Amino acid sequence: MRDTVDRISTPLAVDPTRLHALLERERTHCLSAHPACAALAARCQAHFPFGVPLHWMRDWPTPVSLFLRTAQGAHVQCADGVDYADFCLGDTGAMFGHAPAPVAAAVAAQAAQGFTGMLPHEISARVGELLADRFGLPYWQLAMTASDANRFVLRWVRALSGRPQVLVFDGCYHGAVDDTLVDRDPITGASVRRPSLLGAVHNHPAFTRVVPFNDLQALEDALRDGQVAALLAEPALTNFGLVPPQPGFWEAAQALCQRHGTLFVLDETHTLSTGVGGWARTHGLQPDIWVAGKAVAGGVPCAVYGMSADVAARLQAAKRQAPQGHSGIGTTLTANALALAALAAALQHLHTPDTYAAMQRAADMLQAGLNERLHTHALPWTLTRLGARMELQFLPDPPRNADEVRAHAQPALQACLHLFLLNRGVLLTPFHGMMLCAPTTTDADVARLLQAFDAWLAALFD
Ligand code: PMP
Hints:
alpha/beta; single chain; 18 strands
């Protein structure tokens, strides 16, 4: 029988004793199934702080890191030879599948011809044409990562507008970009530094305003004094659960930006999952600047930002008027030949209706299966979907803003779901309940996830 206790913040509470016992059991099981990973973890402890090459690789809920051996299509294999149906997909870097064949071939061919040279590669002209064709904006610049792209865009918008402030939504994540790592004080509404930030000494909250998502009044209040260079936003918050925009929100928000002379920057690094060309193209929105990284070049390090003709003209004027010297924008390896080759291949072969149709088909199946289970078990949880990506959230209705997500946070339940599924050969995105389908995600992969989910519900409630 389901064992529930009603609480104000969580409509369905799971018996904590049972939950923690299950978590312990799953931890023990995970350890015993991964002796090779445990041995690698022990060796890595000698040379990597936290035992991993990047500290947040330890934030997965596993008692020991999984060390990857191969990543192909919608599957990864760890050093113990265990196969996983991967619904994390490098949290979107591998949205088109791991090592997609056209990109792997293009990178291999280019690798034999040279990696990097500080000059534009001859394929650049084709890349520009493909970017304009796929994403609808005429002018483009490249970066290595989405974090870089967002950082550079914030410099450009301040430079070309002469305005000091930028605006983001509470609960946003746009990468390792100090300007955006700010929260909204729920009492005063003021911007405050995100408490988890390490080594921060500059006063970014003084230059970044934060308003709740889906709140047009707060947005207008923040724009009114004409000091905001740009609104930087995802079409839906995807890094704080999944918070969809209310109907009509973006049309009104964009009109407000236009009225107050604020540039509208859309970061589609995750919402590229929506459809060919991303959320803006699918929904007919026309941002002034558009950013994407991660999957844009099939998972090879590369990011892009596109802009209108007006923004391109202002950006060139800002650079021309500045004294000679460092702009603070760009890195040496940016737009290297390998990245450009990968980008061209991805734009041509992956950002296509056929690819998206395959991703959506798998996502349709997964969504139907999960919704059926939520319904059958009368679980007051929500599944929110953006094309090939969906998010299971432990709250009864899709949230409207970050505060509603905070009010329903259940980290132990989340960790338990992740670990339980991982022990049954299914990877979800760490940190939240995101599942992404690749073009190569099969019916059997979806069935594996659903079966594991059934077993998890039974372990928690029966
Ligand atoms: N923008 C969004 C919307 C993101 O979700 C992320 C990363 N999760 C980034 C930018 C930064 O991407 P990267 O870590 O590849 O720089």
